[in-house]
Amino acid sequence: MMTDNFISMLSTSSSVEGLENAFFDYVEKQQFKTQIERMVACKDSTSLGKIGRRGITLYEDDTWLMLITLDAFATHSGVANTFASESLYCVISDHHYAVGVYPELNGVLALPDENNLTKTKNLTILAKDYAYVFHGQQEKVVVALHNKSVTRDVCPQYEIATGNKIASYSGTQNLERYKVLIGFLPQFGVTGAPYLSALTKHRINAIRWQALVELFKVDHQLAKSTLIEFLEDPCQIIRAQAKATLAQLTEFEEAC
């Protein structure tokens, strides 16, 4: 059986590379759209797999998660995203992806001479060496195969116009944990200041900025010095926030 053959491939594979053709062929021949319609008509909610918040789980082990789900991911206008893990997507509804794929070279994007927009139902997302621009937020029903392994702890975002890095986000689940811990530290008074100061040097933009906000609660002068340093931050969003905040702070101090 083809299903058994594909599942057997998953059990011995650790990357989507080499699985693309087999996965897309598997999805096409399984006729999942017809199976979903049959599930609804027969009021059978278990024939394909367990239904949960993320969708219908078709297969899961320590490395892979394959499910039928809704996808409407879109990037901000003019911004290319990178991803922490690799995935394969096959659209089974009457829609398609409109996506631009840009190679990464030494921390910048390699920009094509002309528009590289591609419309496709079969999409491969790699965790390294490429950034992606998704156009439109149209919901699509997809069969998605996700590799659970995080191969990129920090995921840059790039400005398409220049190819330069403009921001980054956490590729792991550590971001929310950091936010919780950062929120705790001011409650310990000045003893929390060195730890907050260290976190203002973190690679993730959101962590750096929140650490600075909390640092103002326990050590105003150290926080102000750090804010001035943020005027030269690698992230243009952080630089803009720092400039606006410093202007407000200066105005407030002069008024007092």
Short summary:
The chain has helices spanning 2-11, 20-30, 32-42, 174-184, 193-199, 205-215, 220-229, 236-255; strands spanning 50-52, 55-60, 64-71, 79-81, 87-91, 97-105, 108-109, 118-120, 122-125, 130-134, 140-147, 154-159, 165-170.
Specify the structural class: alpha+beta
Unreliable spans:
none
Percentage of residues in strands? 25-35%
What would you call the quaternary organization? single chain
Number of helices: 8
Rounded average pLDDT: 87
Largest sheet: number of strands, sense, barrel closure: 6 strands, antiparallel
One letter per element, helices H and strands E, the order comes to HHHEEEEEEEEEEEEEHHHHH
Protein name: HEAT repeat domain-containing protein
Organism: Pseudoalteromonas rubra
Description of the molecule:
The chain has about 260 residues and is of the alpha+beta class. It has helices spanning about 1-10, 20-30, 30-40, 175-185, 195-200, 205-215, 220-230, 235-255; strands at about 50, 55-60, 65-70, 80, 85-90, 95-105, 110, 120, 120-125, 130-135, 140-145, 155-160, 165-170. It folds into three domains: about 1-65, no CATH class; about 70-170, no CATH class; about 170-255, no CATH class. About 35% of the residues lie in helices and about 25% in strands. Strands 1-2-3-11-5-9 form a six-stranded antiparallel sheet, with helices on one face. Strands 6, 7, 8 and 10 form a four-stranded antiparallel sheet that branches. Strand 1 (about 50) and strand 2 (about 55-60) form a beta hairpin. Helix 4 (about 175-185) packs parallel to helix 6 (about 205-215) and helix 5 packs antiparallel against helix 6 (about 205-215). The longest helix has 20 residues, at about 235-255. The chain is elongated, with a radius of gyration of 23 Å. About 25% of the residues are buried.
